[in-house]
Every structure is written in C-alpha cells, then in structure tokens.
Amino acid sequence: MKILNLICLSAVLILLCGCSKNKIAHTFELADNDFLLDGKPFQIVSGEIHYPRVPREAWRDRMKMAKAMGLNTIGTYVFWNVHEPEKNVFDFSGNNDIAEFVKIAQQEGLWVILRPSPYVCAEWEFGGYPYWLQNEQGMKVRSQEKQYLEEYRKYIHEVGKQLAPLQVNHGGNVLMVQIENEYGSYGADKEYLKINREMFIDAGFDGLLYTCDPQKDIKNGFFPEHFRLLMDKTIRQ
Questions:
Q1: 159 contacts 116 by C-beta, under 8 angstroms
Q2: Based on CB atoms within 10 Å of each CB, which residue in 7, 17, 53, 164 is the most buried?
Q3: What is the three-class DSSP state of 210?
Q4: Separation between Cα atoms, residue 207 and residue 36, nearest integer Å
C-alpha cells in the first residue's frame, strides 16, 4: 500500500512539474524605442490568423506554416458576434475556443497579440458586433450610452475569464491586448476610451494594453492618459 501511495505521489509530482514548465511568467513592456521582453529588446514579427475563419483542425498546421515563414507572433481579433450569438448566450466551444487557439500558439512557440475590441472591422458583418444589439431601443455602439456599456462590459468579462490568465505576466503567451480598433476613424471621445481601458482591467487584463489607428486618425483615437500610465508603469518596473 505504501509503495502504491509513493507511486501515485510521484506521478502527481511529475504532472505538476510538467505543467509548471510552460507557466513561466514574463515581463513585456514598452521602452523609449523598443518593446522589452524580460528586459531585452524584442522585435515583433507578426501575422494575422483569425480562428473563426480557419477550421479548428487546421489551427496548428497554419501556425506551423506561419512560424516556418519566420513569424514569432500571431495576431487575432476576438469576434463578439461569434461568442455571444444571442443576448447572454456565450459560446467559447469548438471553433470558438479562442483560449485553445492561444494555447496551441504557445505550444508552437508563438506569441499572441489579442484584439478583443468591441469593433473589429475585419470585413466582418456589422464589424463584429452581434446582430441583436440593433434590437435594443436607444442603444448606440461605441459610445457612453448606458445599455451599450452594460452589454459590452458583460462580454469583455466573459472574454477575460477565457484569456486574461493567458497573458505573459501570468505564464501565457499573450503579449498585448487591444482595447479599441481604429476608433480614431469613428470618433474622438477620450472618456469612452478611458471607460474601455477600465473595463479591460476589471476583466483581468493587467498587461500591456494598446489602441490601434491609422496615422491620420491617431489624434482622435490616441488616449494620452493611457500612454502616460503605460510609461509610468514601465518606468516603475
């Protein structure tokens, strides 16, 4: 009996050691002229693979090809209408299993840039918003309108449950998380951008957050307070 117990204990320890090898926390930050991964300059060589557009069975194969091309990072949007096809009905299974997509990338030696902004564009119907938002009377997307923010908050928290633990500072491979996508081409509400940032943090995204805009629209989509906070955080670290 004692021998059996020792064998079982040894097996558990081996499993724990095997799991911990892939759970090394990293630091990823913005310096004056470089990204720093664990304090060393890091060049991101990235390409996009959108998981809903590729059969799950082919995810790993596509990633292997991406790495063979010389990429070290995969970028992907997270599509709201895919994950909440009906109000309060969330789906992260099968081809919608974004967490598994990210984990496979880590297994293949790839970092991930995550883009779960409410609006993704991506030549995707309604920019990635679920159709049922249009049925909510008085709702206005990408705004401070109360109904919209409530639905958006619920969605981002569900995304956080799936993906926040996979950030580099928690032992995962997600380098950065985008809080808005080309918002400067749509509006210039800095308070709305601030609310976006706070939602992501509340959902567990405590790593490097960023916005994305074409050069001509940066002034509208740029969030100065976020940039100052980001630089302060980098300096403190």
A1: yes
A2: 164
A3: strand
A4: 13
| Confidence label for 130 from pLDDT (cuts 50, 70 and 90) | very high
Quote the CA–CA distance of 208 and 151 in Å, as a whole number: 24
Q: Where are the alpha helices (DSSP H) in the chain?
A: 2-20, 59-68, 80-83, 98-107, 146-163, 190-202, 218-221, 224-236
At 37, phi and psi to the nearest 5? Answer: -105, 115
CA 9 to chain centre: 37
pTM, to two decimals = 0.86
**Beta bridge partners of residue 114, listed in sequence order:** 76, 177
DSSP β-ladder status, 28-30 and 35-37: antiparallel
Query: Which residue in this structure is represented by tokens 């930050």?
Result: 29
Pairing relationship of beta strands 208-212 and 174-181 according to DSSP bridges: parallel
Angstrom CA distances, 67 to 51, 58, 107, 135, stand at 16, 14, 12, 43
Q: Which pair of tokens denotes residue 56? A: 């799950």
DSSP-based three-state secondary structure for 89: strand
Q: How many Cβ atoms are within 10 Å of 134's Cβ, its own excluded?
A: 11
Q: How many CB atoms lie within 10 A of CB 129?
A: 23
Q: How far apart are alpha carbons 129 and 207 in whole angstroms?
A: 25
Give the model confidence (pLDDT) of 13-33 as tens digits.
333 444 445 578 999 999 989
11-25, 63-77, 80-94: segment of lowest average pLDDT: 11-25
